[in-house]
Predict the 3D structure of the following.
Amino acid sequence: MGAVAELAERLRARAVSSRELVDASLRRAEATASLNAFVCLDPDGARAAAAQADDERARGIDRGPLHGVPVAIKDNLHVAGLPTTCASRILAGFVPRTDATAVGRLRAAGAIVMGKTNLDEFAMGSSTEHSAFGPVRNPVDEERVAGGSSGGSAAAVAAGVVPIALGSDTGGSVRQPAAFCGVVGLRPTWGSVSRSGLVAFASSLDQVGPIAADVESAQLVLEVLASPDPADATATRNLGPAAEPGRIGLITELADAVPPAGRSVLDRAVAALGGAEPVSLPSTRFAAPAYYVLASAEAASNLARFDGVRYGARVHGDSLAAMIRSTRTEGFGREVQRRVLLGNFVLSAGHRDAYYRRGLAARDRLRAEFDALFRRVDLLISLTAPETAFPVGSRPDPVAMYRSDLLTIPAALAGLPAVSVPVPGPGLPWGVQLMGPAGADRTVLAAARRLEAALR
Amino acid sequence: MSYTPVIGLEIHLQLATATKMFCGCSAAFGGAPNTRTCPVCLGFPGALPVPNEQAVVLATRLALALGATVQRSSAFDRKSYIYPDLPKGYQITQQVQPIATGGAVPVGARAIPLRRLHLEEDAGKSSHGSSSTTIDLNRAGVPLVELVTEPALRSPAEAAAFMKQVRRIVRYLGVSDGNMEQGSLRCDANVSLRRTDAEEPGDRVELKNINSFRFVSQALEHEIARHAALLDAGERVPRETRLFDAKRGVTVFMRSKEDDQDYRYFPEPDLPPLVLDDALLRRAREGLVELAHERAGRWERDWDLRAKDAAALSADRATAEWFEAAVGALGSRDGAQVRTLANLMLGEVARRLNDAGGLLADLPFGPARLAQLVELIEDGTLSVELARKVLGVLWTRDADPSAIADEHGWRQMSDDASIDPVIRAVLADHPAELGRFRAGKTKLKGFFVGQVMKRTRGTANPGLVSARLDALLAEQDG
């Protein structure tokens, strides 16, 4: 659907109405239904909101660049009145009464919620194949995955259904699907965007972020989302001002992890930015194992509440314990069950020291190394994923799947802002990732815009 | 064989906040089931905890009052277990970095050392029927402070005294209502026996839910006897958790240590470290008051009050403050006046309050009136008996005690000129008794005093009556 700035200009000039944009979005969603990007569409709600947005504009009210612009929301974020499924059977029938803070802020800025997008169940996955509603297909090549876990949001933007969408990034779930689908994906600094109303996967890693057709659109969303929220005790950060991105570091360990085709894409990006100095982040080799230990530990705890007692699906059992067991066995998919088991294992009395504590130690080390690097350089660069979109159904081995997040995990573990910028060219899209120190989201985005312009 | 009990207590106190620990729901006791709930305390997906500042202030206040070391930065952890009345599948508590460590609770002459104080949230309540279980989550998320002692208590009586002292202190500070019937004060105990000739204590048993002062001592008595019998028979005490059966007065097996849950503790990622800034500390300090035992000690020193009276009057904060206000209104704070005041409060005032079931605060008169009454007793205007009558009037309306006395003609007859004629008349009217008195039946003096009091409708000063009676009887002899 294009860039938000362009849409905003046309809306302001009355060259198009929000109602027309919504209708176009709905038509496009229908035309691309085979992508399976949406879990649910809300035509009536979207049309009503668009009519209100147009009415406001007619009365001279302008809520800013998102006023009247359609957005899609990953289905692990609450939208009042629409079911939140997390692409899981276990949440059947769960309808939140209030918006997630991020959704509420978008709506207050005038954005129109079109519907909820498909995802890996509870955001656990890198391909959006682990969904109770079936896999999302990549708009560039429908035989391939859209990446994950925010595959629905990335596909919806890439297919032109919406100009912007919200995703959530725990280990790379915004950036990697953005890269696979050839769009922009931003993971903001942890603690700058409220998680209230985001169904938790791994709280210390989860971060809501935008997926958009271009960097500026992603930034417009960030500016609406990023500020402290009294409903989230960890959302306390204000972003720093944009600084001129100066020295850029190329993380050699991450550069060495990609195949030659990827390496040449990375070199193109580095050249477009005027060069980068090689730097070392030795603990990246512990990052993925540490991530799967820590994220699974938190996931096991966060998902303990889905017991069939208070809401969602309930499968009968002859005793309380049997009811809870049947509900969870039938309600959760295989990948979620695997991570719950893994998480409880690494937290258990006999194994906590060997796994969970070492995971924390690796994370601390990685953070310290990032801190040291950011005293030398302003930004870091790598590819977003070590690969392009792979064929649907081609990765039955979970550990092979986990490798897709190798390059996005380090910034996630350290809570850093990171953006994936698409690299156009022949063949499937690649993504290049820029990372900055905590709070330097605007600086990261400024560099991303320069990169985007240079690559065009 | 002789043994010394080694007892440690874990006390859970509900903090006296208006709202729950991590959400805005009412923390009040009761309510229709599940009406005091929201997405946070129901554990709905997407809902996040936000710490209740007032709970932090109250826990800090208690820690300061007990001389504990308050941590400027503490942290929350998740304690995981599956139970239907635990909505999130974990309880938010402070396992690794509690809000305070150390401190002590004075119990009699001993100071019982504390290990730690930490904040946590309560679970809900399950009611198991024959075919179903119902759950009430009104209590889920209510703020608790857990107070853990060192294993320093030496007898069941001391454990019960400890609990009473804790309740008195928390009520004084206003940090908890300490109401055991409503679960605001709960107790678990660890008990083991140490052979008197040994250094190390024996194997430990945990007792759950001994939620009354009586149950604490009963459960511990029973447990100590059970351990002693096992040890005497040369057996080991199995490490286990037991429940107190209040009906039979015995402890019963609940689970063995091997079956203990693995709580899979880890740092609560939804909450940043709990930092006590200066403003919070100031709020905690503002509510610090002199505690009962401290007050009682001061009264004993300054006013020469008897220890027993000081303890009784200081036990409840409202009573203590009322008493202090009355003392403050006394013209003089010499021991006699304060003691008379104490006697009145522990005697007539306490009796009347007890009969009527009221509170000092509900009385029509204030502490200054009682001080006035004491002064009337001390200057001889009123006898204690008359003062009681005046108090009876004060109970119904607020008025100057001396005006009340005047109204009813209750001023004490304290001069010879008024009393002598009455004594003479009594002696004249009872020649037979007088004869027997002269014959040596001196006990009849009491009879004459009584008659004088009767004729003066109790207004005669009994001391003076006695003295004048002696004088007049001697005169008549001569």
